[in-house]
Structure formats: structure tokens, C-alpha cells
Design goal:
The complex is a heterodimer of chains A (222) and B (314). Helices cover 82% and strands 0% of the residues of chain A. Chain A has helices at 4-32, 37-52, 55-66, 71-80, 88-113, 116-124, 129-158, 161-167, 177-187, 190-221. Chain B has two domains: 39-165 and 274-312, Periplasmic binding protein-like II (D-Maltodextrin-Binding Protein, domain 2, 3-Layer(aba) Sandwich); 168-263, Periplasmic binding protein-like II (D-Maltodextrin-Binding Protein, domain 2, 3-Layer(aba) Sandwich). Chain B contains twelve helices and eleven strands. Chain B has helices spanning 9-29, 39-70, 75-79, 95-109, 122-130, 143-151, 201-212, 216-219, 229-237, 248-253, 286-296, 299-307, and strands at residues 84-91, 113-120, 137-139, 161-166, 168-173, 192-195, 223-226, 243-247, 258-263, 273-279, 311-312. In chain B, strands 2-1-3-10-4-11 form a six-stranded mixed sheet, with helices on both faces. Chain B has a five-stranded mixed sheet with strand order 7-6-8-5-9. The longest helix of chain B is centred in the first third of the chain and has 32 residues, at 39-70. Classes of the chains: A mainly alpha (222), B alpha/beta (314). Chains A and B meet through α9 of A and α5 and β7 of B.
């Protein structure tokens, strides 16, 4: 069995979860601290969009942004000599884009669950906003954030549609596990496909178990 | 503390149910048109047309048995004889010629027969037919897939015709011609798009030609394998790939976005690029499917193919 799709998928999912983790929490905190309801709703809608759009549509937008003939793609090409389309980096961009809403929503939900009184009390005690973020919000939201992280990781691992559009299918470079399964089935190599499917199922199963344990942690605290 | 909700739980549930019902009705009423190149649309459109052809087949057999039982005149079956829909599974490179001219031509000459087309990599179509896709006609871009299905007993062998001939060419995005003048220059491209040789005939031919030229192995680390030749074409047109190999007919269809560098050198392909067509054995509309295959061999159909860049392969 060719191990490269598994390695590539782990690398991609590994990097993308780190990026998604921070971006998601940051975005959640931003939205939660917004005062105006209208702005909150609009921003929330935009940030959740990749979750509800079909991956191929999201991939279309990514290509629209980062494609070689597009402004951002041209920018990266000229100033960093990096072509995003068909590069390994593109798999990470696709995975981050598709898993971001999951992380963002989980984090936001976890933050909003934190008792408002604790935050207000901290403010009367003179705690700075940053300290409040770390010691009150994050501390209480950890279970929700962890389960969001696991979900986002699994989503990033399983990303296919958007990846196919912007990263292409280069064996040893951008062929992730889901793409390998797709290629093997299209070629009629069901045995190879089964092997990759088994790997994905095991990883997905472990993710669900991890998520349940994190949620159990949430219940205990609640 | 609980925040005031925009929509209450009950209202939300009703809204959701209404939305699902509306979507269901829209999907039911909507026409299941011909599919695109992507897998998702390919399989869902195929499944939808499968359902349509199934329903049509049911209606016909029911009408026939009724007439046989009651012994009434043909008028009863003629009265509820609706139009027959046949599904043509054809290689992606045939989509434009079929959808734009050939299918409308055939439908005009044969009122009462509707033709739906599903276009994708020939290998994918072969797998779909093996897994039960109710196609009536199959036209692949290589003899490999047709022969495979024939050996599995899924093709009406006596209807196989090697209909068309095509050529493979090296293309680059419009404006990216620098450094490319001969077919072998593909090796100097930084990213290459090819069809997956395992399932896409265009990829098969590309592998054959490039192996004969001795450059197949060295390009492997930069090759993105597409699931059908149209995908490869679009990737080059978008500039994602610096070079690709497609059919001359595909390049002609997107002449404003891609530039043809060269044809595969003489002798690099053992055999010509042949497109066979045949009736699928399990068809429920043998007559109409046969008529379509016959039509494709007619002089006017071949003239249409020629305008798209195909050559007569017989």
C-alpha cells in the first residue's frame, strides 16, 4: 500500500488544525464581544458559510481567490514566488477553510455558555480584558473548545471537494486520503480503496471517542 | 442566563419541516438535466435519469401486459405511450458535440425519444455501468473500457462500432507558451495536468506517448491526475497547471484559453485514439438505443463530429 496519502493527510490535517484552532477561537471571541446584534449576525453568517456551502462551491471561491490568474494568486506568485494552486499549501488552505466554521461555532458556543456574571465580577475586580479572556472565558470553555477542535480536525482530514479544485491530485504531494480513495475507486482498484477507507474510518472513530470524552468533561463541569 | 431567542424551538421545527418539504417538491418537479464533469453531479444526475428511465420502462411493460391480458386493441397502449428516454454514457470529450448538436438533431428526427447524456471519464463510466447505471448506449474514448465491459457480457457485442478517431495534444495556458515548442517540452513544466491513466483514456494515451518518449517517470512528482479530460483542460485553462495533455477536440473547444503546442509525435502511440460506441446489453430500449447508435454513424452525424475536430475512425 502506498503510504503517502496517509502521511500527506496527517501533515495537512495537523497543520490545518493548529491554524484553525487559533483562528476559530480568535474569531469566536471577536464575535462574542461585539455589541451590535446586526453586525454579529452578518459576521457570523460569513464565518459559517463554508460549513453550509457544498465543498465544491467553497473550492470554487478558493480558486477564485488564489487561482493563478486571480489577484491574490498573482500577489503570492510575484512577491513570494509561490504558486498556490496545485501546491501542498493549497491542501492546508482548503482544510482550514472547511474546518474553520466548526471550530468557530464550537468556540463561540462554549464562550457564550460561560456565566456572564463571572465576567462582570472579574471586571469589577479590575481584571484586564486579556486576563478575563484567559482566566475566565478560556478556562470555562475548554471542553467545548476541545470537542470543536476534534470535530475540526476530522473535517480537515476528510476534506475533498475544495482540495480537489485548488490543490489538484498530485501523488506524493497533494493526494490526500479522501482523494486517494476517489482515485482508486475511479480506477476500479477496490482493494486499495478499502485499505484507505479502513484507515479513515479508524481515525474518524477515534475522533468521535475523543469528542465524547471532551463532552463528558463538559457535563461534569456544567 | 438564557438569551432571548429569535425563533422559538417549535417555530424553528415547523420552519425546518416546511423548508424540507419545499426542497423535496422543487427537486421532484425539476428536470433532471445532463450531468457535468464532476463526480457528484455525474452520479446524482445519472441516478435521477436512472429513476426516469426506470419509470418509463415500468410504464411501457405495464401497458403491454395490460393489453395482452384484456386483449384490447393497441389503442390503449398507444394512448398512454409516453416518450421514451434513453441514457447515453459518453466520454467527457464528446459532451460538446453531443449536447450542442447531435442529441437535438436526433430528437428532432425521432419525436417521442428523449436522449439524456452523462459525460465523464470513460473508466468512471465503466465502473458506474458495472455497478448498475442504467445506460442504454456507451461511447468511450478508448477501446479498453468497451472491451472490458464486453468481456463482462454487458455490451451487445454486435453493435460495437469503432466510430471516431481523435488526437492527443500538449496544451499550455494562453500566454504561457514560453519554453514550449515541442511535445517533449512537457518535461520542463513545473506542474502538469494529465488524466488518470487508470481510468481516463486521455491519461492512458498520455502515459503511452510519454513512456515511449522516455519522460513519463521523471515528471511523476509534478503530475496532477484528473478524473476526466475536461477537468484537465480546465485546470490548464485556469493556469493551475503549466501544461497538460488533452484531445485536439478539447483544445479546439477552448481555443481562447489554451494554446496547442504540439501533437503527440508520430509513432509514440502504438494504436490510434479510437472511440467505440455500442448498445448496452441491459437496455430497456433496445430499439431506440440501436437507432441512436445508427444515427451516430450517419453522414450528417459524422460531419458534425468533424466540425468538432474528430475524424472518422472506421
Amino acid at each position: 500500500m502506498d503510504w503517502s496519502p496517509i502521511l500527506i493527510s496527517m501533515k495537512t490535517a495537523g497543520l490545518s488544525i493548529v491554524v484553525t484552532f487559533f483562528l476559530g477561537i480568535l474569531a469566536a471571541w471577536l464575535v462574542v464581544s461585539l455589541k451590535r446584534e446586526a453586525l454579529k449576525m452578518v459576521l457570523d453568517g460569513i464565518l459559517t458559510l463554508p460549513l453550509v456551502l457544498p465543498p465544491t462551491v467553497a473550492g470554487f471561491f478558493l480558486l477564485y481567490l488564489f487561482g493563478v490568474k486571480r489577484p491574490l494568486g498573482q500577489f503570492f506568485l510575484e512577491y513570494f514566488s509561490v504558486k498556490i494552486a496545485f501546491s501542498w499549501g493549497a491542501t492546508v488552505i482548503a482544510a482550514v477553510t472547511m474546518s474553520f466554521p466548526l471550530m468557530y461555532r464550537s468556540a463561540r458556543g462554549a464562550f457564550e455558555q460561560v456565566d456572564e456574571n463571572l465576567v462582570q465580577a472579574a471586571r469589577t475586580l479590575g481584571m484586564g480584558e486579556w486576563t478575563i479572556f484567559w482566566k475566565i472565558l478560556m478556562a470555562n470553555a475548554v471542553p467545548g473548545i476541545v470537542s470543536g477542535g476534534v470535530l475540526a480536525f476530522a473535517r480537515g482530514l476528510g476534506e475533498f471537494g475544495a482540495t480537489a479544485m485548488i490543490a489538484g491530485n498530485i501523488a506524493g504531494k497533494t493526494r490526500t486520503l479522501p482523494m486517494a480513495v476517489y482515485s482508486e475507486v475511479a480506477a476500479g482498484n477496490m482493494d486499495s480503496a478499502y485499505q484507505y477507507v479502513a484507515v479513515i474510518v479508524v481515525i474518524a472513530f477515534l475522533s468521535v471517542i475523543a469528542m465524547n470524552r471532551a463532552a463528558a468533561g463538559n457535563a461534569r463541569r456544567g | 442566563m438564557k438569551k432571548p431567542r429569535l425563533i422559538t424551538g417549535k417555530q424553528g421545527l415547523l420552519l425546518f419541516a416546511a423548508a424540507v418539504a419545499a426542497a423535496g417538491m422543487l427537486a421532484g418537479c425539476g428536470k433532471s438535466g445532463s450531468s457535468g464533469q464532476t463526480a457528484a453531479s455525474g452520479t446524482t444526475a445519472a441516478a435521477a435519469t436512472e429513476a426516469v428511465t426506470e419509470a418509463e420502462a415500468e410504464k411501457e411493460t405495464k401497458g403491454e401486459t395490460e393489453a395482452a391480458e384484456t386483449g384490447t386493441a393497441v389503442t390503449e397502449t398507444a394512448a398512454d405511450q409516453e416518450e421514451v428516454t434513453i441514457l447515453v454514457a459518453a466520454a467527457a470529450s464528446l459532451k460538446n458535440a453531443c449536447e450542442e448538436e447531435l442529441i437535438p438533431m436526433f430528437e428532432e428526427q425521432n419525436p417521442g425519444v428523449k436522449v439524456e447524456g452523462t459525460y465523464d471519464g470513460s473508466g468512471k463510466l465503466q465502473t458506474q455501468i458495472e455497478e448498475g447505471l442504467e445506460a442504454d448506449v456507451f461511447m468511450s474514448a478508448a477501446t479498453k473500457q468497451m472491451t472490458a465491459l464486453d468481456e463482462e457480457g454487458m455490451i451487445a457485442s454486435d453493435t460495437i462500432v469503432d466510430l471516431l478517431e481523435n488526437k492527443i495534444v500538449l496544451i499550455v495556458p494562453e500566454g504561457g507558451e514560453e519554453g514550449f515548442s515541442v511535445f517533449e517540452d512537457i518535461a520542463s513544466a513545473e506542474s502538469i495536468a494529465l488524466g488518470d491513466p487508470a481510468s481516463v483514456p486521455a491519461g492512458q494515451y498520455a502515459e503511452e506517448a510519454l513512456t515511449a518518449l522516455g519522460i513519463w517517470d521523471e515528471i511523476q512528482d509534478r503530475v496532477s491526475l484528473g478524473t476526466n479530460v475536461t477537468e484537465v483542460l480546465n485546470q490548464v485553462a485556469a493556469g493551475s497547471a503549466d501544461a497538460g495533455i488533452v484531445y485536439a477536440t478539447d483544445a479546439a473547444g477552448m481555443a481562447d484559453q489554451v494554446t496547442v503546442v504540439a501533437e503527440a509525435p508520430e509513432g509514440s502511440l502504438k494504436a490510434k485514439v479510437i472511440y467505440p460506441v455500442a448498445v448496452v446489453k441491459a437496455t430497456a430500449h433496445e430499439e431506440q438505443a440501436g437507432a441512436f447508435v445508427e444515427f451516430l454513424q450517419s453522414a450528417e452525424a459524422l460531419k458534425v463530429f468533424e466540425t468538432y475536430g474528430f475524424a472518422d475512425g472506421r
